[in-house]
Amino acid sequence: MTSSFNVHNAAGYERLMGRWSKRLAPLFIDFCGLADGEKVLDVGCGTGSLTFALAEAAAVGQITAIDFSPVFVEAATRRNVDPRISVLQADACDLPFDDDTFDRAFALLVLHFVPDAGKAVAEMRRVVRSGGTVGAVVWDHLGGMPGMRMMVDTVAALSEDGRQLRSRYCFQPMMQPSEMKRTFVEHGLVEVVETELMIRMDYQNFDDYWAPIAAGEGPLGKYVAALDEVERVRTDAAVRNAYEAGRPNGPRSFANVAWACKGIVP
Predict the structure, then answer these.
(1) Which residue range or ranges hold the Methyltransferase type domain (predicted)?
(2) Farthest-apart Cα atoms in the chain, separation
């Protein structure tokens, strides 16, 4: 499985997105449900935001966390001290588990980076027992992430490359209303429900917002890293201007919406 998400180091990801996925994970678990004694699969675990939230939310029997990136697998493994949790490298589109292995399979902020998201949903359904739950959540890049849209709209005003970035970023897979729900239904899940979850991303200052992107983390960081020196300076200044919005540099808070979907394996 290839992925459109690039990561250089776990610490950079934590500052870019991990700290916010930790806020989203409990809301996602509440939506999908969880029970004591269950075997749960975390698909695309990253640094473990959902993995460790699952361990705290219930007395689950086993949590298996997988990710395609060795950087993430190493980071989650290093953090883990819970014997119920195992972390391994695997492909979301070719899960190395038998049919009906798990009670639940969840994917937190993953499907929009999987080129064949439908295949990943099909694999999650396959490895979950009849009556079990498959759940996923992705950011609404088009209409629900004003902090990130601030950056992509700014670079779109600067160049054609920026406009192409915005088009890619805003229309990744599974992000449009009812898109995940349709995919879940198409792959045989029943009692499918889609909803919106909201958290706030709170930044202390412009550097807190911009540093992980400027360091090349994630799809927006990949764009910035490819700029030449002149365009980089121009972009840094333009995004700072957008962040500050005519006021002194300092804290800013953005409401961020994610689409969440769950379904039952018949």
Answers:
(1) 41-134
(2) 57
Q: Which residue has the tokens 């190493």?
A: 74
Structure-block tokens of residue 220: 């927006």
C-alpha pair distances (Å), 109 with each of 87, 156, 175, 224, 265: 17, 24, 11, 22, 21
Query: What is the model's pTM?
Result: 0.94
Encoding tokens for residue 158?
Answer: 């600067």
How many Cα atoms sit within 13 Å of 43 on the Cβ side?
33
Please give the helix or strand (H or E) that residue 204 lies within, else none: none
Q: How far apart are CA 2 and CA 147, in angstroms?
A: 27
Residue 198's pLDDT is what?
A: 98
Quote the CATH superfamily of domain 10-264. Answer: Vaccinia Virus protein VP39 (3.40.50.150)
pLDDT digits (tens, 9 = 90+) for 204-249: 999 999 999 999 988 899 999 999 999 999 999 999 999 999 999 9
Domain boundaries, the chain: 10-264
